Amino acid sequence: MKWCLKLLLAVPLLAACAHTAVPTTPAKPGPLGNTAAPRRAWWKEVVVYQVYPRSFQDSDNNGVGDIRGIISRLDYIKSLGVNVVWLNPVYQSPNDDAGYDISDYRAIMSEMGSMADFDALLRGLHQRGIKLVMDLVVNHTSDEHSWFQQSRSSRNNPYRDYYHWWPAEKGTPAKRWSFFDEEGSAWRFDSTTSAYYLHYFSRKQPDLKWENPRVRQEIYDIMRFWFEKGVDGFRMDVIPFISKDTTFPPIQAKNPPEYIAYYANGPRLHEYLREMNREVLSKYDVMTVGEAGGVAVEDALKFIADDRHELQTFFQFEVVDHWGRREDNFLYPDSTDRSLPELKGIFTKWDSVVAQDGWGTVFLGNHDQSRMVSRYGNDSPQHRKTSAKMLHTLLLTMRATPYIYNGDEIGMANIRFTDIRDYRDLMTINFYQRLAREGGDLREFLTAQAEVSRDNGRTPMQWSADSNAGFTGGIPWIRINLDYRTVNVAAAERDTSSVLHYFRRMIQLRKSEPVLVYGRYQLLDRENPDVFAYTRSLNGRTLMVALSFSPAGGRTALPTGYTAGRTLMNNLAESPVQGGQLLLRPYQAVVLELKQDVAGRVNGQGGN
Ligand code: GLC
């Protein structure tokens, strides 16, 4: 009990000691194998809520969300039950890439407010027991950062070596692809010093040269600056891209997966991450999550295993890349690859990493993705609510720290722009211009972007049915989804069957059931094309999660040797349990207790 009390004080969110203790010793394996649970840590037990500040709440009616706006919504954020807020960049920036092009890492963008506003936000979150994770964007800066201004001014400038330059007299550098550039190349010729600079993203986002130890020290200082303020962690933007082979040899790559994997496996990457950990991260009790596109499952533990002392967690992109984007061009959807068995396979493969060491994350939406309900669920009026609840059930029952993107808690859907003038994202706009120049099929492109563009996830939060959805009294920086008249927070608060209420209950369930955080995950019924079903087991307690991903519902069976106990969560009124079978309605989701039947116990297969 004393142990339990201590834990409760140290980790208030796990108010669950009374229910099931988290084991420190391995349990006897049962049929669903209750093996050792991972080591506890606060950042494994939290639920993270991502706030996209431009679109969250505008406080001064200039049409852009800001820090004071977020402060005015802190009680709402608290009411969700989340423990951490991840805030997209609010640093000074010319906003070529919506804040991911930083011109001063120690200043707040004027559109977003002041440093005093930021300090008030941090205080307000901490007073409510919520931690704050900031975005660390240090693969590149803005070209308007003073370092780059200096660097480009002359070949002898002391900042020259802060960036990657290729002198023109060496000829044209070997091909590197840019994710955003109008012409596609990641090298940009700069006539001032007759040299090319490298920019994996837009030409206004030159890549920093981590090979220069002075650059690394600058970055560590920036990190300390924010940690000393009390920030609780960093989400690290495209962090695997930081190390480069500075001889820039030609590479064989035909499509994004190939060159992304190349970018993500630079020769000194792990050396830099270990140094960053040693010099900064290890000195603070903070959380870290890397954005790790291009990292293969076989390499995952190099980043996150406990004894590597690099990062704690990262986002893998196999799930979001699998479901609905063409492999050779992420700007187009792929309708042929939406196979649920494959999706289950990806989740299961990544869980097997965590079963050994390290810790995972799970997300289905963020500011770079279209809306989760439109993509993995079904945003038709008939299925929007049920399928959004089903997806929240998935997010909150995996063995990984869940990240929920703002707006998903009310089931916000894709806006599906049809006119290029509505877009604000440089990725869409630049590619459109390129296609127009090259005589490509613009109509096909716009149809594709309506489904997959990043702007789908960036439209303003829908707070109420008032004008501009209660987001701003001015002209919003990007159009608001017209479904706000029905899909909004105020309406969801009034409707006890809303996605919002369900989401809050799901969070409470995760907090009260350590098995949902630490329990072993086991996939059931792998080939079932309609149902994603799995168990989570810890200390002899086994829960089953069954999720219909289909407008036709689906059917699956309880695992052999088990009968259904209490239903802990159900997104519909009807129970799917029919003896040993589950008959799920369209997009139905349930979390059930499983009881081992007598035969199983007699055979001595029980957990402890
Ligand atoms: C990351 C960010 C994305 C940004 C890019 C360049 O992928 O999430 O929004 O455009 O990095 O910084």
Which overall shape is indicated by the principal axes computed on the Cα atoms?
A: globular
Gyration radius (Cα, Å) is 24 Å
Q: Whole-Å distance between the termini?
A: 19 Å
Q: How many DSSP helices?
A: 20
Strand arrangement, largest sheet?
11-10-9-5-2-1-13-12
Biggest pleated-sheet summary = 8 strands, parallel
Helix/strand structural class? alpha/beta
Any ligands, ions or cofactors bound here, and which? alpha-D-glucopyranose
Given as residue ranges, the uncertain stretches (5+ residues, pLDDT < 50) are 1-21, 23-31, 603-608
Strand proportion, as a percent range, falls in: 15-25%
* Percent helix range: 25-40%
- Total strand segments: 21
Mean pLDDT across all residues, rounded?
92
Description:
The structure is a single chain. The chain is an alpha/beta fold. Helices cover 29% and strands 16% of the residues. The strands form 5 sheets. It has an 8-stranded parallel sheet with strand order 11-10-9-5-2-1-13-12. The chain is globular. The model is unreliable at 1-21, 23-31 and 603-608 (pLDDT under 50). It binds alpha-D-glucopyranose. Alpha-D-glucopyranose (GLC) binds next to loops.
